[in-house]
Amino acid sequence: MVMVTTGFAMIISFIYWCIFLDLSNRNKFYYNMIGKIMQEKGRTFFVGML
Q1: Cα(26)–Cα(30) distance, rounded to whole angstroms?
Q2: Among 25, 29, 31, 46, which residue has the least CB neighbours within 10 Å?
Q3: b (16+ CB within 10 A) / e for 6-44
Q4: Mean pLDDT score across all residues of the chain
Q5: What is the DSSP code string of 18-46?
Q6: What's the rounded mean pLDDT across residues 15-34?
Q7: Residue 26's domain spans which residues?
Q8: How many domains does the chain have?
């Protein structure tokens, strides 16, 4: 359980690092694309997980 939680936290931290700390034009493009996907499908996706 601890290993799974630690691994999950590392993945989240890596995603945050890629999106928020490295603000090159390419990463801004991916960030905007992810933002659009989350706005359109995020609610359905999270409800589906529950």
Answers
A1: 6
A2: 25
A3: eeeeeeeeeeeeeeeeeeeeeeeeeeeeeeeeeeeeeee
A4: 73
A5: IIII---HHHHHHHHHHHHHHHHHHHHHH
A6: 71
A7: 2-49
A8: 1
